[in-house]
Amino acid sequence: VPLGNVYYYFKTKEEIGEAIIEERLLQAKALQQRLDEISSPEGRLCGFVKVTVDSRQLLARGGCPIGTLCTELHKEDDALAKHSTVLFSELLKWFETQFRALGAKADAHGLAVHLLSALQGIAVLAHTLRDPKIVIGEAERLQGWIQTLGTHDNRGDEA
Amino acid sequence: VPLGNVYYYFKTKEEIGEAIIEERLLQAKALQQRLDEISSPEGRLCGFVKVTVDSRQLLARGGCPIGTLCTELHKEDDALAKHSTVLFSELLKWFETQFRALGAKADAHGLAVHLLSALQGIAVLAHTLRDPKIVIGEAERLQGWIQTLGTHDNRGDEA
User: Fold this and answer.
1) C-alpha dihedral, A7 to A10 to A11 to A14, nearest 10°
2) How confident is the model at residue A158 (pLDDT cuts 50, 70, 90)?
3) By the CB < 8 Å criterion, does B159 face chain A?
4) Which of B63, B68, B138 lies closest to A113 in CB terms?
5) What is the DSSP string of B4-15?
6) What's the pLDDT tens digit per position in A29-55?
7) Are A49 and A139 in contact (CB under 8 A)?
8) CB B64 within 8 A of CB B123
9) What is the mean pLDDT of each run of 10 residues along chain B (159 residues)?
10) Under an 8 A CB cutoff, do B63 and A74 touch?
11) Which of A68, B36, B140, B152 could be cross-linked to A63 through a Cys-Cys bond (beta carbons 3.0 to 4.6 Å apart)?
12) CA-CA distance, A61 to A116, in Å (whole number)?
């Protein structure tokens, strides 16, 4: 797309940024709705991890589209940066809902932070090492951990 | 520092990039040498996690200095990007050494990837959410997990 066309639709850098955030938010919501059809919370969480694995070539080429957008926008401390935060907070909320359904009460937020961190981090590693395969092993570890939370008397501890 | 001064010492963008990578590498090596004086491998790994906790204000302001540098340089697929990879691969090697000393044989690399991912990811979250406190809970979880690896018959499993 020639830059002129972009500026025909969006008058400022802020408008472009807002449009990208809204687009990513819609994509995330669509994914969550699709995963919400899976009957068990551990299935929904493992399904999310699987989407990360399926995107490993993309992650190795350019990093996580949400993570790199947020990191980029947070070089400034402005309204756009603040708005991009919604991408992570919505994801954390959805993860938390699943962990609570798994039986984790007080710790659901901490578990959600752990899962989102791990996924963001493996995207940074895959990108920097240009290694899509590195996502596979970490995803298996995370899926194993999620299954453990689902089977071990629903207490939601990692250890 | 006025930009003119920087270009007095460094003739090209590549030279500046190389100098930053070398500086970060020296800092990482100095930290590892300091931590190597701790007698137990779980103490060394928990010590590394503690350094992340102690840096939480910095992480919330600007992200991980190594992670954001690598992400930035990997927007290009050039020699500088390739060189920056050494920052992660050296860290992974050091983590692996500790996990092997903890008794994890075949899985030492996977455990190292898991720990580095978690730390990179929590830095991305702290930065995007502008929340230094989020690092504390995740660090406690990781330190608890490392201690478990050290005490539960040295098998190096997460679950």
Assistant:
1) -120
2) very low
3) yes
4) B138
5) HHHHHH-SSHHH
6) 999 999 999 999 999 999 999 999 999
7) yes
8) yes
9) 66 86 94 96 98 96 91 89 92 97 92 97 96 97 94 49
10) yes
11) A68
12) 20
Residue B62 CB-density burial (10 A; 0-12 exposed, 13-18 middle, 19+ buried): middle
With an 8 Å Cβ cutoff, is B71 touching chain A?
Answer: yes
Q: What is the ipTM of this complex?
A: 0.88
Question: Which value, to the nearest 10 degrees, does the dihedral of the CA atoms of residues A92, A143, A136, A50 take?
Answer: -60
pLDDT digits (tens, 9 = 90+) for A87-104: 999 999 999 999 999 999
Separation between Cα atoms, residue B121 and residue B141, nearest integer Å: 14
Length of chain A equals 159
Of B74, B121, B130, the CB nearest to A127: B74
Q: Which two tokens stand for residue B155?
A: 């098998």
Q: Report yes or no: A144 at the B interface, CB cutoff 8 Å.
A: yes
b vs e for B100-112, b when ≥16 Cβ sit within 10 Å of the residue's Cβ? bbbebeebbbbbb
CA-to-CA separations, A142 to A112, B3, B47, B147, B156, in angstroms, rounded: 12, 45, 24, 19, 15
Residue with tokens 């910095």: B58
The answer, for A114 touching chain B at a CB cutoff of 8 Å, is yes
Structure token pair of residue B37: 């004086």
Q: Do A63 and B71 touch (CB under 8 A)?
A: yes
d(CA B4, CA B6): 5
Q: What is the pLDDT of residue A134?
A: 97
pLDDT tens digits, A114-137: 999 999 999 999 999 999 999 999
CA–CA separation, A67 and A88 (whole Å): 9
Angle at CA A57, nearest 5°, toward A135 and A87? 75
- How close A122 gets to chain B, by Cα (Å)? 5
State residue A147's pLDDT score.
94
